[in-house]
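Homework help thread (please don't just give me the answer)

Our assignment gives two proteins as sequence + structure token strings and asks us to describe the second one. The first is just a warm-up. Here they are:
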Amino acid sequence: MGFSHVGITDTDLASAEAHYQAWIEKGFHGAMDYMAKHGSKRTQPAELVAGTMRVISVRMDYQPPHAKDAEQVLREDDQAFISRYALGRDYHKVLRNRLQKLCEKIQSELANYPLENFQYRVFTDSAPVLEVALAEKAGLGWRGKHTLLLSREAGSWFFLGEIYTNLPLPIDPPSENHCGNCTKCIDICPTQAIVAPYQVDARRCISYLTIELKTSIPEEFRPLIGNRVYGCDDCQLTCPWNRFGQITQQDDFHVRHGLDDVSLITLFAWDEATFNEKMAGSAIYRIGHEQWLRNIAVALGNATSQPDITNALMSRAEDPSSLVKEHVRWALQQHHISV
């Protein structure tokens, strides 16, 4: 099926529930209202899918081969940095299709056993599911201090998916934590979003600011975003465990449209039709063209001043979108140009 690891766990998330509720109460979820909805369905799987007894947790590596070195892209401030997970096709569809095939395989195997009424539902970052907590319990890895799942064999460059089922399957032992005294992810975060070990204030996180936040990016964070136009991988790039990161075996996650090595000016010139065409089938598509331009405008504001940078910004100084126009004007001010 293309999965790199699979584990099975029960539905007891009592310890994770307390941590999650405390995170919500601190307002660390920001404008992601969906994180606070659904009551206890997120922490009690049987409330989300009645009859759930077990969760089958899987991971699939996504690190693309032959992609331009991420740290080099970050150093070239006229280039666009896009989080490694979004360089290929949208993982939601890929994982859901594979999980569905796995369920069909399980169903065919059950035909040989006196067990009827196999029920299941598949998920991948698409419903109120505590993916990392379930994967940790299922033995796929441990929650790192940056809150992502870490594996001794694969670092953190992978997607997670789940199958909720009523099958009384044997469960796997949970993973042990191997972060030790390391604080590299905390230290490197450009916006200091990892406010304490295992605790991220999403309102400060560049991934949140460039993807989840739909309104104006707070000015205090704009210079810290650098050339990151979609997501941020700094905490993963610095993590020692990612020296064991695996290159994906899935063609779907290979780089598309040269997004690993492309200039900010090139992307800023895309009209909406071009954006929709190029980003079709990509996770980036969901933020839309307006938010895409907003992010790139900030990155252009952070780039080294040169005529082609300022000319690109001037071309959208009167953009019909008030959101884009605001960020373009801020960017021009960084180059000492008033409009």
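The one we have to describe:
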Amino acid sequence: MKYDTILPLTFAPRPGAEAWMRQFQDWLCHRLETADGGGHRFRPEEWAHGGGGGTTHTLEQGAVLEKSSVAFAAVWDVMSKPLAQRLRLRDPRYFVASLQAGLHPRSPMVPGAHLHLRYVEAATGEAWFGGSLDLTPTYVDVAQARWFHQQLQEMCGLHDASYYPRFKAGADAHFYLPHRGETRGVGGLYFDRLQVGRDGLFEELLAFVQDVGEVYGRTYGTLMSQNAGRPYAEPEKRWQQLRRGRYAEFSLTMERPEPACRCPQSLVLGLPPRAEWYHHHTPAPGSAEAQTLQWLRPGIDWLHAGAA
């Protein structure tokens, strides 16, 4: 079946989701600028796609953040037939509002982080939220990873006690490179489809997604401040480049298809500024690098990891 161009008024998307994502983009950029501390500002760039578009904010060569982007989009489009079949939708027309952030710090002692929040409304009347966030340290600081997960658990507990174990397990499975036998980092949260009506009222699900965004910005700002001044040398930098290679491998080979809501440069924006690959690279036994690899596996109880 051929579908005509979709106009915004064809749908009645919940305006609260789109309006909040716009506001959250500004809030997160301001918080990251403050934590970066170098006087650098995010540069906005508007773009259009089919029925809709968005604004991508980028900050490069900051005091702490070497490359970072926070992108908002609201798009009306038609999804591919395979994706519509996977989502079990009879009508492939959709609206999606999305907020995506990718943060790559200069120092190997500061972890990287990712966030993706989306609201999808199908022409069939179905609507749902999806989202993910994860922390990708070059060197795993167990105490900081434990604190990070404790913040996620506390936030999830304000909404549904089952959210943290469910979505933490989802992140363990999603952010995993099977060809490496490694997780991308220390995990976080991943929820693919919280459906309006089946899983809660729109307002309830939006409130949860808002708190996911808030805990991401708050915890990452804290981790930037705690780690930005830690010393490092060339060996740590080389290890960072190798771990960035793992991040790029995941982005290029493991990301799952979803309703498109990205600017044309989104893939490049999300990749680290530099990365390295080696055919054989085995860290020395007992080294900080070898210890980090021991933690990059699914199923770790981060709430109690390393606790006395």
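TA reply:
I won't write it for you, but here's a hint about the kind of observation we're looking for: The domain at 8-295 is CATH 3.40.1500.10 (oxygen-dependent coproporphyrinogen oxidase).
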